[in-house]
Write a structure and sequence with these properties.
Layout lengths: L1 H30 L4 H20 L3 H16 L9 H24 L8 H10 L31 H22 L3 H19 L6 H16 L5 H19 L7 H14 L4 H10 L8 H12 L5 H24 L5 H20 L3 H8 L2 H7 L8 H18 L7 H11 L4 H37 L10 H14 L3 H19 L7 H19 L10 H13 L7
Helix pairs in contact: 1-2, 1-4, 2-3, 3-4, 3-5, 4-5, 6-7, 6-9, 6-23, 7-8, 7-22, 8-10, 8-11, 13-14, 13-17, 14-15, 14-16, 15-17, 18-19, 19-20, 19-22, 20-21, 21-22, 21-23, 22-23
């Protein structure tokens, strides 16, 4: 890699000139599709490009050039509109190759993974299968698994729990496929595989669950992107789980295990399972992160897609400056120049908000422009009522701007309010109500997380009940918050967990079995996933999660409504 990046400088001029000639020949052929010589010229230039890249050992760039050449030779002279997609892909690939080599020439670090999306796009055009994310990644998969503790499973429980845990995995997978509540979904899937690993017991048979749990843990902690390739990988795990549970002789494909270990290496997290993977398989840190790959891929394809986020940040900075001036005016410390500046900034902000579609916020601010303009000629302080009206308008604008860079529930909530014909005040109130719900949900999630930590400490201390002293009270508080939000069924399940802890862990001497404690943790994990999914906004789409939690609560021997 280093030699290739260094050698690029020796052939840079010739290489870029050849790429430009290939682009020109291709453009001329698109305009004159019956001119065979133009297509042949483009093919000859592409052969030269591939030869140069092979000579300086730029593996990723050479592979891209090879795919470009294969696609170009597949296009016949006189190609009609049915070949427009392939011709467009050729032009795009040459553009990406040029941008990649420019970056390599500047930074001297080859990252062939950046070119995989473009390579796969070309391979699809020629009917070839996609290359996996781990194509440029090397790892030895035959490392023995370290010894681990034995988990006692009662007879007849394995099949029932295996089915329930696969359903838990599928539930998280559905959310990942929809790109909803990704962090919680990945954690739920990781726990399902971890519990299946304990359930299956046999080292080689459960290797998929062992490595898969680590990969999902790493994906959640590093917030890896839910790309199409990764969604397909996670769905493939589900298909293999079905065979794993029905066939004692099943072994996961090595290619699947390699992909999962690549995700662990890419995430670079310090979680318990990911750290074990690094120790066992000798995973080295990669010279890039997933977010770096995303940023660089966007750079290769053209300008970034973060315009609205950047604009939101700029507007918020302007609002801070406006509020600072308003504070000076309220304290009587502002000069005439400050009032002039405030008047100009409010007018400019109102126009900006109107241009980006926040018409209600723009109107709220525009209504204050004349009032602020009248302050300039006055030597006394503005009336308190005028200051309050401007402050209210700024708060409203701030709440609207907060939706610009958030493509989640908050933006949908405000948009829905405006679509339903609500006015400025009603839309603002909807936003504030949403914020209040978020606070209650955060407190509920914190209460469940506290309960899980306390149970872990109880288990590690061999049943020290002091660790559980506050857990029932905390869970009852969570139950009350859920009742407040109208989530009666979730509240009932949380209350059942609190009752189990009180009656079967605090009030009796003997500790519950490890299997029962794991089942309790499954119930709390499912409820936590339900809350992290924004259940108060989409309760109708979260009933499967509550069904899963109810199954776990019933397995504890607690009665809950169907």
């Amino acid at each position: 890699m280093v030699s290739g990046a260094t050698s690029l400088g020796l052939v840079r001029s010739e290489l870029f000139a050849t790429i430009e000639q290939a682009e020109q020949s291709l453009e001329q052929f698109i305009a004159e599709r019956h001119n065979v010589s133009l297509l042949q010229q483009a093919v000859e230039y592409l052969q030269q490009i591939r030869g140069i890249l092979k000579l300086i050992e730029l593996v990723g760039a050479e592979l891209l050039a090879q795919e470009v050449l294969l696609l170009a030779t597949d296009i016949p002279a006189g190609a009609g509109q049915e070949r427009d997609g392939q011709l467009s892909a050729l032009g795009k690939a040459l553009f990406v190759l040029r941008r990649y080599l420019e970056g390599l020439d500047n930074h001297r670090q080859e990252i062939p993974e950046l070119l995989l999306p473009m390579i796969n796009e070309l391979r699809q055009s020629t009917g070839q299968p996609n290359l996996p994310e781990s194509y440029f990644f090397s790892i030895r998969l035959d490392q023995p698994r370290p010894a681990r503790r034995n988990v006692e499973i009662q007879p007849g429980v394995a099949n029932r729990d295996g089915t329930r845990l696969r359903q838990m995995y599928q539930l998280g997978l559905m959310n990942v496929l929809r790109e909803q509540n990704l962090g919680a979904a990945l954690k739920l899937m990781s726990r399902a595989l971890s519990r299946l690993d304990d359930l299956l017991g046999a080292r080689e048979r459960s290797r998929l669950c062992w490595i898969g749990a680590a990969a999902l843990e790493a994906m959640a902690e590093a917030q890896l992107r839910p790309t199409k390739t990764r969604k397909q990988l996670l769905a493939r795990i589900d298909r293999d789980l079905r065979q794993l549970l029905s066939n004692p002789q099943f072994e996961a494909p090595r290619s699947l295990l390699k992909e999962l270990l690549y995700l662990v290496a890419l995430a670079g997290t310090q979680g318990e399972r990911a750290s074990e993977m690094r120790r066992v398989f000798g995973l080295a840190s990669l010279p890039f992160t997933d977010h770096l790959l995303d940023e660089e891929s966007r750079r290769l394809s053209g300008p970034g897609q973060e315009v609205m986020r950047s604009l939101s940040l700029a507007i918020r900075e302007e609002l801070v400056a406006v509020k600072d001036i308003l504070d000076l005016i309220e304290r009587g410390a502002a000069q005439v120049e400050s009032k002039v500046e405030l008047h100009a900034q409010i007018g400019k902000l109102a126009k900006t908000l109107g241009m980006i579609g926040l018409s209600s916020a723009a109107n709220a601010l525009q209504a204050q422009v004349a009032t602020v303009g009248s302050w300039i000629e006055r030597s006394d302080n503005p009336a308190a009522a005028e200051l309050l009206r401007l402050a209210d308008a700024l708060l409203y604008v701030e709440s609207m701007v907060a939706t610009l860079d958030q493509g989640d529930q908050r933006q949908r909530q405000v948009s829905a309010a405006q679509a339903n014909g609500q006015g400025d005040g009603e839309s603002f109130a909807t936003h504030q109500l949403f914020e209040a719900h978020v606070v209650v949900m955060d407190e509920a999630q914190a209460g469940l997380a506290l309960a899980k930590r306390a149970i872990t400490a109880y288990l590690e201390s061999n049943g020290d009940k002091l660790n559980l002293a506050n857990v029932p009270t905390s869970l009852q508080a969570v139950r009350g918050g859920l009742w407040f939000l109208g989530l009666a069924r979730a509240a009932e399940l949380v209350g059942a967990c609190a009752d189990y802890i009180q009656k079967h862990m605090i009030e009796i001497t003997q500790m519950p079995s490890e299997q029962m404690l794991e089942t309790l943790a499954d119930a709390l994990t499912s409820l936590e996933f339900f809350l992290e999914g924004g259940a108060n906004l989409r309760p109708e789409g979260q009933q499967d999660v509550l069904d899963l939690a109810a199954d776990s609560v019933r397995a504890l021997g607690m009665q809950v409504a169907a």
